[in-house]
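[DERIVE STRUCTURE TOKENS]
===
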Amino acid sequence: MKLTIASRNPKSTKFPITLELEGTPETIKVQDVALAIEKKFPKYYPDRQRLTDLDKKALDVDKTLAEAGVVDGPQIGWRTVFLIEYGGPLLIHPIFYYASKLFYGADFQHSPMQTTVYYMCMAHFLKRELETLFVHRFSHGTMPFLNVFKNSGHYWLLSGINLAYWVYGPWFAAGKAASVRSDVWLYGSVAVWAWAELSNLATHITLRNLRPAGTRRRAIPFGYGFDLISCPNYFFETIGWTVVCFLSTSWSAWLFNIVATGQMYVWAVKKHKNYKKEFKDYPRNRKAMFPFIA
């Protein structure tokens, strides 16, 4: 199998290198990789090496590559993965919204609440697609192709089919008591949601500006949102979806939001710990995702 080894130093002139090893991830050990590097660069004998995964966690030399999380097979770029993930809801929501008779057996007029939530969801995922194309810079190059199905399931099923089916149904149609929203409720929700979305975009731009194109440089983020928490992008994302929950009052929106927030909190805690470990001068007053809480 072919294995690419990159250096943590973006200015390295020797790395990345590509090694060709006989065997599979199940038979090749991390120690074998270290010996192959030594063969190519004799001065880098195994005791002088520190092999890590993309999260900079040291690999156990006695484990196989498979045990260390290295897999063989077709790869797909992370940018493409995100485009596929967010593209699902962009296709699914219009189908449920405009083809009501196909799914609910009858035509009906959507309520102002349903129309507002529809445009919120479409704008959110369109924003995510544009950020993927023009804002985000990815430290990880590729991932196993089959993982795209697992990653997309969350968006295509929970924020796609599940959310669209239950929010755009006849039980929330115009004239139904369950769909009635006061102007304060409706327009107030839009205002808070728009603030959360724009705040999320601002934090993404801050993170982009920390990493020059073509590098994996890491630095401490400062500025709007980052003074209190390490991952304000996740915090603002949660606020945006919580607004959708209160506006729609649908259990499907709450289900997606709870699952998404839980996953983002796990990521936030991991990133927060990595920041503190990597940067000795990292601000001590910051929490991971929720200001003053955690």
